[in-house]
Amino acid sequence: MSKHFRVPGRLAIRLEEAGTRVSAVLQSAGLEPGLLDQPRVVVTTEELFALWRGVGVASPNPAIGLELGTETKAEHFDPIAVAALSTASFGEAMRQMARYKQLSCPEEIIHETDESEWSIQFRWLLADGAEPAILTDVCFAWVLCIARHGTGTRISPLRVELARQAAHGKIFERHFGCPVVFGAVRNAMIFRASDAALPFVTRNAELLAMLAPQFDEELKQRKGEETFPERVRAAIQRKLAGRRPKMQEIAREFHISSRTLQRRLQDAGYSFQQVLEEARHQLARHYLNNSLLELNETAYLLGYEDSNSFVRAFRMWEGTPPALWRGAQREKVLPDGPTTRGAVTS
């Protein structure tokens, strides 16, 4: 588990769009003035909490957290959200996100289900105190955004429970479309137990077109010239979204049985596992070369259970750890060679 959080790259833009000065936020939070100007913003739990408290101080808008947690344009979803939206159902999306949190940061998404209700909570593992109210708003609005975008409906929870004292209740009830209970013993969103099975209309979205447009364009240019193993590899890459696709699933894409898929790969000198590893290797190189994804985010998107498994696999492929490989690739494109090495990060 990482001890840090990655701050969304669009946060500064979203704050300015909401009429909130980034400089005022950082000053209120006691954080570095240029923190959000960095290509990758990584903070501790203490700094994350301070940042969101700063947003609360700098913005007079009581709905600022709800607005920042809601994304309306699909092209602005981050790769992890796109991966969640590509799953089969609301419940599967939240399970995938819970696994991603375990892999990438000191945070948990907790699910509790009984016969009629399904509750979702966020737990901050390294926190010394309660999370800022605005951070809770952001998290809950984000869950609702994923649910509504994925299902294509105006789904609403049964209720939202907030530990804070009552304030601006009508704003929250309008946003969530349900009763909001203030002064509760926990912060939780409660859905119907049956909501977890709601199918996502985004399940078969063109994931690569959003995650790796350059790579997807290369695939399109080669289409029609692909061998059967290459077509299988491309199908696997479309399904690599926080999980490892099974042979039966890929066989269904080609409208053939698993046995036929296996036989045709063997005729070409391949096994399904070999093609799966090639698919991961190719995408790993692309993500490391063409994005600012953290290593644990890349590991998640490629369907590994933890970042160490990804590092071991990449070392076998390239003979070097992914962080060093990425650094070496960046050095190749820097002018003047050694004189600019100080600018390279891994």
UniProtKB/TrEMBL annotation:
Coiled-coil parts of chain: none
- Location of the HTH araC/xylS-type domain: 230-328
What InterPro entries does this protein map onto?
AraC-type_N (IPR032687), Homeodomain-like_sf (IPR009057), HTH_AraC (IPR018060)
Q: What SUPFAM superfamilies is this protein classified in? A: Homeodomain-like
A Gene Ontology molecular function term for this protein is: transcription cis-regulatory region binding
Q: GO CC terms on record? A: cytosol
For whether the record's keyword set contains Nucleus, the answer is no
Q: Which Pfam families match?
A: Arabinose_bd (PF12625), HTH_18 (PF12833)
Which key words tag this protein in UniProt?
Answer: DNA-binding, Transcription, Transcription regulation
Instruction: State what protein this is by name.
Output: AraC-like DNA-binding protein
Mind giving the lineage of the organism this protein is from? Bacteria, Pseudomonadati, Acidobacteriota, Terriglobia, Terriglobales
